UniProtKB/TrEMBL annotation, chain A:
Keyword entries, A-Z: ATP-binding, Nucleotide-binding
InterPro entries: AAA+_ATPase (IPR003593), ABC_transporter-like_ATP-bd (IPR003439), ABC_transporter-like_CS (IPR017871), P-loop_NTPase (IPR027417)
Protein name: ABC transporter ATP-binding protein
Family matches, as PANTHER family: ABC-TYPE DIPEPTIDE/OLIGOPEPTIDE TRANSPORT SYSTEM, ATPASE COMPONENT, ABC-TYPE DIPEPTIDE_OLIGOPEPTIDE TRANSPORT SYSTEM, ATPASE COMPONENT
Residue ranges annotated for the ABC transporter domain, each copy included: 19-262
Pfam families registered for this protein in UniProt: ABC_tran (PF00005)
Ligase in keyword set: no
One GO molecular-function entry: ATP hydrolysis activity
UniProtKB/TrEMBL annotation, chain B:
Domain ABC transmembrane type-1: 87-279
PROSITE patterns: ABC_TM1
Descriptive protein name: ABC transporter permease
Origin species: Brachybacterium paraconglomeratum
Oxidoreductase keyword on record: no
Any one of the GO CC terms: plasma membrane
Similarity section: Belongs to the binding-protein-dependent transport system permease family.
Compartments, as annotated in UniProt: Cell membrane
Amino acid sequence: MIETPEMITRSRTEREVLLSCANVTKEFSVAGGTVVAVDDVSLEFPEASVLAVVGESGSGKSTLARMLLRLMPVTSGTIAFRGQDVTSLSGKGLRDYWSEVQAVFQDPFASFNQFFTVGSLLRRSLALARIPSDEADALIEECLGYVDMRPRDVLHKFPHQMSGGQRQRIMIARALMMRPKVLLADEATSMLDATLRVNVLNVLHDLRSELGLTVLFITHDIGQACYLADRVAVMERGRVVERGSTEEVIFAPQAEYTRRLLSDVPDLRGSLRT
Amino acid sequence: MSTPNAPVADEKAVPRGNPFRSLNFSGRFWIALVLVVGVILLGLAGYVYPTGPGEKVASLYDPPGAGLPLGSDNFGHDVLAVLMAGTRTSLIIGLVAGIVATVIGVIVGLVAGYIGGWFEELLMGATNVVLAIPSIIVLILISISLPQSSVWSLAVVIGITSWPWTARAVRAQASSVATREHIDVARLSGARLPGILLRDVLPYILSYTVMAFVLQVAGAILAESALSMLGLGPSGANSLGIQLHWALAFQAVGGGAWWAFLPPTIVLTLVSFGFLLLQSSLDEVFNPRLRRGKRKQMKQAAARRAEEARLLAEQTARTVQGPAGAPRGKELA
């Protein structure tokens, strides 16, 4: 049996923990056995901070995200929001949870229902936003404002009439409609080109400072994590191998896997090095 | 699945000349449409045809002739008038049965495919059981047990025995749509199950549903005529199958009265052929990979481009060679 490395915890945060998961495991049954996608992961998401989960493809980041969002049941473990166990919510309780915890996904085209306009996408969220109907337009305008868009420019548009960056910003606006406390961005920038990526990263950064949003940023790109995050957790094959503040984890890594990930980051000056 | 990030905002700026152009209706589609519309018109023509289907205008099996374009049947009714009324009945039954079958099939398939798990196993198990029972036997049993068989009851009975095929097709599509990201977004937006099924799943499988519906209509028309020919059709109505039933019962085939059984047979053939052709040509419209004719156009375009490239190459070769006319190949060698 291979010895599994223990999680290295560098420092803990003093801020209040908003969302947390404890010993969360996810197994998928496949032909000839089970695959452990997420293995005994425990993490805390402190209020009004940006936590990045970094790991290569297949390390279980997205599975963890879907479990935290309660879009997928856990095999074992618990997820708690504000100290309340939300692991087995359903129906109204789950919708209440979703009015506090929202997400933006990877593919800015697949996230849209291509048959409906941006306006109907945003209006759909009003049921969870729980505001009087005469304030709906103001809320839509406000949320589009956070991502630097105006209602009269975009509400009538269909997804295919917008660029990838615009679509991703609309998705962020949609997530903000419920005025959530937690925003989970699952590879939200990986299908955008470099300039749009910075644009979306800046939007996420501003939201944290303006709205006190807790951002959970899931990425395979350690550079983006460094740019945005206060704290970083590194995942390898379903396990968290190292976690701590960005400075500690990225600039003085201790886990073997983190060092390897960092050595794979392209270096602009040494780009021709073999 | 990769999607280009290029803005397509200017798509609206250029108005499309003909919106139907982009749908690429093939020749098969138009033939199918002509067949189906022709049969519908034949059914509607009964409203303006001077003779009613129940009027006795001649004696037993009068051959086609003056005033009777298709002769008379065993009751002395005008065959053409009966044919028009029968076509109408068959189309109504096909349409109603098709709607009933499609609605049941879509609901079962959507719910099973979207929810998945044991619920899917249960629903699909039930569907397979219904599928395994020969529907013509169920049809005959239900038709016999109904005290009064009308056009509508027969249509509903045909509909509720033929939905499983639609359910299976819809389930397969729905379970693939259910794993897409926009469903997660809809759930996070607080959408409930009926809303997700109607707005996020159904539109994506609507083309399959339309095709399944067209098949169901054709199948129902044939099922009705089979039942009616066996004498289990709607009482007191005219239909293509009932016409065949009486033609058989009164020895039209043996007696050489072809006008009594050939017209309903031809109309039945045309209508089911028309619907099947419509279904397969709709498949081509919805699924670009199946389009024919396109290949020919593409070949022509490729040939045109190759010709242009050849001319251009010749031109450049001439200018490169220059006035001296030294062969360029040697220079390179």
